[in-house]
Design goal:
21 helices, Amino acid/polyamine transporter I, mainly alpha, 69% helix
């Protein structure tokens, strides 16, 4: 069982062989845009409806709780990423602080997280795209709408969600072209996304009606099973819309490709987190104040629906168009993170080493990006939004718990190691991140918890059958 405890040397964590080293091309504006691009997306454009259905107007509290837990995790990420500016995020930190066994579990959970996030966002994007095509058909009379069989997965009576599959491969192509190029396009699209949300708030606020906030907490605070078999409550909603807040962890996967990681990573992680929390609270308040949650709770495009119901069809169209154009920024950020997690685990030998080759011309891991595209496109083609979002949250919560633990372990084990960013009140922030994430995990649907445990049971088998003996640390023992 020695393999479970062997750790990477922090002093050599940024040393890599030629041909498997990522190229530093990013600065802090790219990272802030990457973070906002990842965070502000499907969560506010689509999952606000799912959250409102579970918590009613108290979805505002759900956003606040999820935001506080994420803020604690973000502070831990900021310290660890500047101290260990290597790709791999929570997986790499766990490898250095907690040992290979736990690192494998976290890496395996991150594979689940990023794969499902990309699939979820692709499905969310497809919903807006289908809505736009239907509007075009209504306005022009042209048969531009996709047949239902090609616009929805089997769960919704279709065959395959073709738009979701296509957008995954489009984003994969952009990432293969180069990291800096795709990050620049991302930054440009993020501006459009923020403008659209600002317009939504400006138009919805005058329609604010306090009656829409009563009863404020119709389903109570803790997770509870309703008569219809659906788990509801403030915490049940928080556990789902937690998905809307994370994304800053994708920034930490860019550590190896950052020009000045000691400064830029902390700016990117904390800056994007603070900005997005304020944006979310404003948009959620405007949404539940302008319309009863029962109207938009089941919609695949809740913000656009609210605008249409209020008689602002042009604004609804604008939000739909911006979602179509800008939601791929979320895809890009998480797809980027997924490919880097795969890449680092491959470079460490825990996954086949052949996947960790870097293209000499673009400086990107083309093979692993293509492999990731096939995996998530297959999932997006048949997946159901709410279920895969919840399962993605389980993987993220595991990673955040590990990062909180790594923060405390390294503060104890290596208190004098230089830290470009020091988490304030670390012995309060770390436990809050851990306990908050544990409570959110408990608040997930029981089916989600069982699927997550099943996934990691498979992961343990893969580790003992393949990864343990192929690990680069095993070869050096």
């Amino acid at each position: 069982m020695h393999s479970l405890l062997r750790r990477k040397d922090i002093n050599r964590i940024t040393e890599h062989e030629e041909g498997r080293r990522l190229v530093p091309t990013l600065s802090w504006p790219h990272l802030v845009a990457l973070g906002i691009g990842a965070i502000v997306g499907t969560g506010i454009y689509t999952l606000i409806g799912v959250g409102a259905e579970k918590a009613g107007p108290a979805v505002l509290l759900s956003f606040l709780i999820a935001g506080v837990v994420c803020a604690c995790a973000a502070l831990a990420y900021a310290e660890l990423s500047t101290m260990m500016p290597a790709a791999g995020s929570a997986y790499t930190y766990s490898y250095a602080a907690l040992g290979e066994g736990l690192a494998w579990i976290i890496g395996w959970s991150l594979i689940l997280e990023y794969s499902l996030v990309v699939s979820t966002v692709a499905v969310g994007w497809s919903g807006y795209f289908a809505g736009f095509l239907q509007w075009m058909q209504h306005q022009t009379g042209w048969a531009v709408a996709l047949p239902h069989a090609l616009a929805a997965g089997p769960h919704a009576g279709g065959i395959i969600n073709l738009p979701a599959v296509v957008i995954v491969f489009v984003v994969a192509g952009a990432l293969m072209a180069g990291t800096r190029e795709s990050a620049t396009i991302n930054a440009f699209l993020v501006v459009f996304k923020l403008i659209a949300l600002a317009i939504f708030v400006a138009v919805a606020m005058p329609a604010f009606n306090s009656d829409n906030l009563h009863p404020f907490m119709p389903y109570g605070f803790p997770k509870a099973m309703g008569a219809d078999g659906v788990e509801r409550g403030v915490m049940a909603a928080a556990a789902i819309i937690f998905f809307a807040f994370y994304g800053f962890d994708a920034i930490s996967t860019a550590a190896e490709e950052t020009k000045n990681p000691g400064r830029d990573l902390s700016i990117g992680i904390i800056g994007s987190m603070i900005g997005c929390t304020l944006i979310y609270m404003l948009v959620a308040f405007a949404a539940v104040g302008a319309m009863n949650f029962g109207v938009f709770g089941k919609s695949a495009e809740p913000l656009a629906l609210i605008m249409r119901e209020l008689g602002h069809g042009t604004v609804a169209l604008l939000i739909g168009i911006v979602a179509i154009i800008a939601l791929p920024t979320v895809l890009l950020a998480f797809f980027y993170g997924q490919s880097r997690i795969f890449f680092v685990m491959s470079r460490d030998g825990l996954l086949p080493r052949g996947l960790s080759k870097v293209n000499a011309r673009t400086g990107t891991p083309v093979a692993i990006t293509a492999f990731t595209a096939v995996l998530v496109a297959a999932l997006a083609g048949v997946a159901r939004l709410d279920e895969i979002a919840a399962l993605a949250n389980a993987g993220t919560l595991a990673a955040f718990i590990a990062v909180g633990a790594c923060l405390l372990v390294l503060r104890k084990r290596e208190p004098n190691r230089p830290r470009s960013f020091r988490t304030p009140m670390a012995w309060l922030v770390g436990p809050l991140a851990i306990l908050g994430c544990l409570y959110l995990f408990w608040s997930l649907p029981q089916k989600t918890q069982l699927w997550f445990l099943t996934w990691n049971t498979i992961g343990v088998v893969v580790y003992f059958v393949y990864a343990r003996s192929h690990s680069m640390l095993a070869r050096n023992d």
